[in-house]
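Section handout 9: paired folding examples.
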Amino acid sequence: MSSTESPDARAVPVVPPTRSARVSEGEALRTVTLPGATLTVRSRPPARAGLPPALLLHGLGGSSQNWSQLMERLADVVDAEAVDLPGFGDAPPPDDRDYSITGYARVVIRHLDAGDRGPVHLIGNSMGGAVATRVAAVRPDLVRTLTLVSPALPELRPQRTAVPTGLLAVPGAVSLFARMTRDWTPERRTSEVLALCYGDPARVTPEGFALAVAEYERRLELPYFWEVMARSARGIVDAYTLGGQHSLWRQAERVLAPTLLVYGVRDQLVSIRMARRASKAFRDSRLLTLLEAGHVAMMEDPDAVARAFRELLADTATTLERSAPPRG
């Protein structure tokens, strides 16, 4: 039994989604089969051949779709791929039902090793940020730069608005929530999620809202949807309690890659207070603070995040030039 599995957890059938996730114009989806897991990979053709690779990791309840806007804006500087982590998007649950941060990190490492794409510019949001931190710490050879958008790193005193999400980790809480909200329309469910994740939900266009509703409806059809949410939330809580060399903060200190940290002042899930601690923990870090953004800055203000990432690339290139040995 994995550390994220409840003793009373019931196995659910693993079936492919009845409807595939939306693919934006210019994007492509493919399935990657790895030992113990299957990923869905979303990609956009780079502007030219030879661009450095990037890999993007979504957060709890998210999917590779969360990165579509940012990938479009970075197509001229990186060859980007965004994955559906096991159990999310179009990817089925992992064979071993390991939804821990370490379990997801192992899958990402397997994917990078199998595709021989490393080192990559690794980008993660929320839970994906915690996974990316672990990957960068244990396999520095796979990571060129690290970009973290509201990473789920341990908070001793999480803000009150984040507590309900943390309660998903409590055994039985998800099934109770599902019963309490079974009469909610998809529109209400989507509105609640956007209110939690966006600094200003009014920034979501009517078309964007309709697409989000359709995606939520699609996910609710999956028999493992609530199981994945509960066990992944438990995986985050478990990671918060780890100490010693396995602590996420200790691993942040081990990261060698140049790091961009992005925090939203209106984030209701990851406190802006954590920005200062993260800046100190990551040895080579830059901080972008967005006053109007919440938990998903890459969706709320993709232009600002893209600019900061470009600055990271330029800064890194300058540093490499200065450290290169003189030519004879």
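Moving on to protein 2 of 2.
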Amino acid sequence: MKKYLLLILLYGAGFFCLTAHAQDEKKTEKTEKATVDSPKPNVPDTVKIGAFVNNIYDLSMTNGECSASVWVWLVYKSDTLKISENFEVINAKTAQRVSTTTERVDGLNWITTKIMGKLQQDWFVHNFPFDTQKIVIKLESSLYDMRSMVFKADVEGSKIDKNFALAGWDIKKFEIINNPSEYDTNYGDPSIKGEKSRYSAVDIVITIKRQSWGLFFKVFLGLYIALLISSLVFLVPSNDLNSKFGLAIGGLFAAVGNKYIVDSVLPETNVFTLCDQIHALTFSFIFFYILISAIFHELDKRGKTELTVKLERICLFAGPLLYAILNFILITRA
């Protein structure tokens, strides 16, 4: 009896072990199948992009543009990428490529091309002529979004020609930075989930500062002379009101003409610029001269000639001095 019982127990233990082993094999198969079936993450191809700026010329504040000549190179490993003709200068009004070459070096694709074109620029003229500007050349992939390809800026290799000089400007900084573009559309691409798309891009940024003082006096010398001419109203006798008004109004017309000249070389803006502030200050002083001359004329008519002469002598020196101080404050704040 004991032998039969022992056999039954051994048989039951063996069956249990076989069942457990079979279940473990099924779990292993499912895990392996899930691993095989799971999609591999899509790793975008990396393209190193650099630039050498040869020249920047024809800066136009009124048209919001400049022209540039730039060498651009692309280095990448994948042989399936067709990037040589599928990147563009986003902010170009007109652009052409010359001297494009393609080579295979150490297992890498190396493309070089020279780009010449007219570029749209956003000029900030708030502090003109004491302004600092940033010239931007934006290069972007036009075919591949960031799921397929990304640019990597060649920071060390990218330069600006050391012999390059921009008349009237000092070059302060050169940099190339990664700056992807995001658009509020998927351009109808059914593979893009959502309504937005992102494309890899780099910005070539050249920071320049204007050589200011020569241009400043060239622009505003006529305005300051107009103000000084208007100040001469305090040398004219108070009873000669017509002569006083003639001097002041002549100065006012000269100041208005100067404003039209300055506005013609600057782009339209809603910002109250330094030029606007200086012109507004000049108009205010000339108006004050006209107003105070009328008041002094009335005082003279009432027999207070001696007091009027003293006040006019004070205004003759105090007016231009106060004007110069206020100008200095405006300029130092720029």
